[in-house]
Amino acid sequence: MTLVAETAETADSAERKSAPRLHHPLRAEFARGFGPWAGAAVLLTLAVALAANSKQWQGGWAETRDQLHTAAGMLGVPLALAAGCWQGGRERRRRTGDLLETAARGPLARLLASALPLALWVVAGYAATAVLAWLATCYSATGDSPYLVAPLTDVVVLASAVLAGQAVGRLVAWRLAAPLLAAGAYVGLGALSYGSSNNSYIPLSPVLDGGTISVPVWWQPLAMVVWTGGLAVAAVLAYAARRRAVALLPLAAAAAAGALLVQTGEGLWHTNPLARRQVCDTSTTPQICVNARYGDLLPQVTDALSGLSGRLEGVRNLPARWEDLPGRPARDTVELPMITPLGWSVVRGELTDPREYAWAAGMALYGRGECDRTDPRVGRIDDAVENYLAPSPLEKHSDEVYAKGSEADRAELRERLKTRARLTAMGEEERRAWLSEYFATADECTPSEVPAL
Q: Predicted confidence band at 22 (pLDDT cuts at 50, 70, 90)?
């Protein structure tokens, strides 16, 4: 009996080894086919788009969020729609539709088995791009912290686009449906997002953002998820569900979310609380304050303005500080030269031209922007103060142009040089006293109000 049992067990074991292993049907969709190619296309497209203008976002977390969100909406969504549409027409291209109609799985199960792996690959391509963008910003970040809500919203929007594209691909028997759907989505999203400012339907766009100093209200991402996801699920159920009336439920949810977005309008965004705060160096004259979103730039800004603030030490009648807050400067303050938009004064966490930045900061102190016309004598005095405190990087070039100009230009240059020399030749105490009197009249436009030099 023992011999018979061992023989039977050996036979069963051999039969199990020789029998083919059964794999889940989704495994083949994940590992092979169109999904990996679609994910790679999303990764490559978004990465190239972000790399092309990396100066404008690298180093700022809010800028990185906005650029990634815009690329996902304007480029990722059309790609996801096209990928889903192409995948949806696969059965028709292979002429296996009639055969699959006899399978045990219903239309909805077959659609989801085809669409979900593709959606995951598209999301994976976007996620890889997001990680690369965060890594690029991390090493040159100037403050703030990553924003996670926008990428999570983008993930749902992209997956919804794949599902909606699947439904279109199964309905439309045309090979050009996928590229035309992508082109139409690109144009439609662009018109909706960047069209007339009077368009009340702009909040429905998944590309919408409130700007680098803004964050959405807490429920805006949820409403956008319900809006886009509801439309996609409604399209899928209307095509493949046994009881198509079920599609009315996600459609109603999408309509309610869309109505809420449209009615709220500009109230969907508010100023980031961090953008209303500053970090300051109180050891300088005037004090130097940088927006808290870029707080790590304060040492660079302080160093760039060190020559200017050093020459102003002991001078009275100066503003209390350079400030960097949204809106007009408060009383007794002047605006710090713009750090944003990134890509100009600041690139990848570094000031591009400290000398020019110092000149711009000085112009905020003694610029007579409210004067319709400045008397030539006042202009020469302003030029002398500018030359002493923080000369323009273009000063040498400007002097050369005047030297090669007409006789009147050369005479004006000689007067400017004499005025500069008189200010430079003053003693320290005398110059501090004169500058104190000068800054007391920094807003005056008539020569009689400005101290002579």
A: very low
Instruction: Fill in the DSSP letter of residue 373.
Output: S
Residue type at 23 in one-letter notation: H
Order of strands, edge to edge, in the sheet holding 287-291?
278-281, 287-291, 321-323, 333-335
Burial of 107 (0-12, 13-18, 19+ CB in 10 A): middle
Q: What is the spatial distance between Cα 337 and Cα 324, in angstroms, rounded to a whole number?
A: 8
CA atoms within 13 Å, Cβ hemisphere of 150: 27
How many CB atoms sit inside 10 A of residue 163's CB?
A: 26
Give pTM, 2 decimals: 0.85
Q: What is the pLDDT of residues 50-107, one digit of tens each?
A: 999 999 999 999 999 999 999 999 999 999 999 999 988 776 665 555 445 555 466 7
- Per-residue pLDDT, averaged over 409-422, amounts to 92
Burial class (CB in 10 A: 0-12, 13-18, 19+), 64: buried
Contacts of 270 (CB under 8 A, 6+ apart): 210, 214, 215, 217
Alpha-helical (H) ranges within 312-375 are: 354-366
CA distances for 46 relative to 132, 163, 181, 416, angstroms: 11, 20, 19, 54
Q: What are the structure tokens assigned to 449, written together?
A: 């109000």
Instruction: Provide the pLDDT for residue 13.
Output: 55
pLDDT at 372: 74
Question: Contacts for 106-111 with beta carbons within 8 Å, 24 or more apart?
Answer: 106/240, 106/242, 107/239, 107/240, 108/236, 108/237, 108/240, 108/241, 108/242, 110/240, 111/166, 111/167, 111/170, 111/236, 111/239, 111/240
Q: Which residues of 67-102 are buried (b: 16+ CB within 10 A; e: fewer)?
A: bbbbbbbbbbbbbbbbbbbbbbbbbeeeeeeeeeee
Token pair in block for residue 343: 């890509």
Confidence band for 33, pLDDT divided at 50, 70 and 90: confident
Residue 142 CA to its chain's centroid (Å): 15
